[in-house]
Amino acid sequence: MADELHAVVRLLLKRMESHPEEFMFGLNAPDVGIRSPLVSTNRWNSFVKDVSDWGNEADKAAIHEGLREIRLGEIHERVMDELINGEQRRADERRAFEEEEKRYNAMKQQPQLYGQAVQNSYQNTLTGAQVTSNNSITLGDAPLTEGMLPQIKKALGAK
Q1: Can you tell me the distance from the alpha carbon of 12 to that of 109, in angstroms, rounded to the nearest whole number?
Q2: Is 121:156 a contact under the CB 8 Å cutoff?
Q3: Angle at 138 between CA 133 and CA 141, to 5 degrees
Q4: Could you read off the pLDDT of 88-97 as tens digits, one per residue?
Q5: pLDDT tens profile 24-36
């Protein structure tokens, strides 16, 4: 009796025969968001793990043998794909990385240039400005008033 397969193991083995794609890992698994050969995304994974945790040696061996054919088939597909498309895929990935790096570097420099222009404009506008003892600001001999605020904002490019 100990060597007899549990009913759930027999069900899983039948499902492996009829729908092997449901036991595949990430890259070939249907309808999944994760695309990794290292991440199992199949719908039966938790049940397979439970059999591995709780099944007897016969259950574990049967599940392992059923998965072996599916996994080796999947590995075979990936090896063939790599042999046929590997160089082109890496060239495309390299090109995409370089383009992304150029966009990132351009974007990274843009705020610095913009910030420098605003700073220069601000410094040019306030050249000669002084803070008096009563904390008012004068430009030359003329005190800055609230009425001058729109002009200052315009000069600084603010709204």
Answers
A1: 57
A2: yes
A3: 110
A4: 988 999 999 9
A5: 875 555 554 544 5
